[in-house]
Specification:
Strand content: under 5%
Number of helices: 9
Distance between the termini: 61 Å
CATH topology of one domain: Tetracycline Repressor, domain 2
Largest sheet: none
Structural class: mainly alpha
InterPro entries: Homeodomain-like_sf, HTH_TetR, Tet_transcr_reg_TetR-rel_C_sf
Keywords: DNA-binding, Transcription, Transcription regulation
CATH superfamily of one domain: Tetracycline Repressor, domain 2
Protein name: TetR family transcriptional regulator
Order of helices and strands: HHHHHHHHH
Organism: Asanoa iriomotensis
């Protein structure tokens, strides 16, 4: 006879909050989070100190997953830095085209959380910095005259793709962004 081990309250809270904060935004109610996780209010405070801590941890977890997805897309494209950078937009086309795509969770959090001291803002900044560094490593391999500017432009194309994809996914904004990126990269 095998027994199935259920995740503990902390993991259930993280899983429920990651899903609900993406589907409904970071201002999803605490009661909805607790119900979805099937945990008592006390668990939220014991594990995360409150909803702000939970949202920050959800963003940290999602950022690690998303950065891994970028790394995987880049690595799968071979050794040519140009192909590796363009592969990011191919991956984004799949992400934005998914039926459950609801936009960039980091931009959504930044816009929804008015308090500049909310711990989520630090996580979103770190996420963007990490993504920027990932792109910068590839751009530097191209020996371009202004690599920092090209990296900033690629970030703008990525963030624009994710924002536009939430409003018009059928328009395939990642494909248009890829075409623009091709002009930036020799």
């Amino acid at each position: 006879m095998s027994t199935r081990i259920q995740p503990g309250p902390r993991e259930r809270l993280l899983t429920a909050a990651q899903r609900l904060s993406y589907e409904q935004g970071v201002n999803v109610g605490v009661d909805a989070l607790l119900t979805a996780a099937n945990v008592a209010r006390r668990s939220l405070y014991e594990h995360f100190g409150g909803k702000d801590g939970l949202i920050a941890e959800v963003l940290r977890r999602a950022a690690a997953e998303d950065l891994d997805a970028y790394r995987s897309a880049i690595a799968a494209a071979g050794d040519d830095p140009r192909a590796r950078l363009l592969a990011v937009f191919d991956m984004l086309d799949q992400v934005v085209s998914a039926p459950d795509f609801r936009g960039c969770r980091y931009l959504g959090a930044d816009l929804a959380l008015a308090d500049p001291a909310h711990p989520a803002h630090e996580i979103t900044r770190e996420y963007r910095q990490s993504l920027h560094q990932l792109l910068a490593r590839e751009v530097s391999r191209l020996s371009l005259p202004h690599p920092a500017r090209v990296t900033d432009q690629l970030m703008l194309l990525i963030e624009g793709t994710l924002a536009t994809g939430a409003a018009r996914p059928a328009g395939h904004p990642a494909r248009d962004a890829r075409a623009l990126a091709e002009h930036l990269l020799p």
